[in-house]
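User: Before I run my own analysis I want an independent prediction to cross-check against. Here's the chain; please return only the structure tokens and, at the end, one sentence I can use as a sanity check.
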Amino acid sequence: MLPTVAAIVVISCIWASLNRLRRAIAPTAIDPGPLLEALRGDAGRARYAEVCASIAEDPDADWERELVLAFGLPGEERIARINELLLDLDHLASSGARVPRVCASIAATTGFLLASLALRQGLGVASDLPLEIQDFAIQQAVRDGIDVAAVGICGAVICVTIGVRAAKAAKARLLATDQLIERMEAIGLAGAPDVAPNAPPAALPEASPPA
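Assistant: Structure tokens:
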């Protein structure tokens, strides 16, 4: 019974940590990596309108659509709006950053607590048994306690690992977005082609899986 309870708690903690990882990897609808690749070089500058049209056609790309619109604003207003969007992105990418650490603590604490309960129950039963089988009962109680504690420790290690991966993913996403904005700024300073409202969407390069 106690190992089952520990497993349920650990699985719940891992699920919550994975949800944090999902938000860190994809805080917005479109990966900035393929967008950046699509805008590189002179060919990328020529495709600017097509890339913007592809963003406009994505119903889930609210943040990216606002970014494209921000580049159409004048001077200081454009800078202020882009900074506001970057703050929103930072909030999205860092949302729930403490969840894996909290889940690791919960998993480990639960494991040790249930292990102590397993030992207490097992030793209590052993004391009422005949002497010839008390040693076996005590050894079984210790094994049960170790098993339950191991489940909690494994869950904690997994949650910590997911937390580290999520932090790296969020950092990489913010860096890629900064590079995308710099490229869009460079295209804008060089004189970007007009964004045609009905321009056919560009076929963006596929994003490589996160390292």
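Sanity check: Residues 2-190 form one domain.
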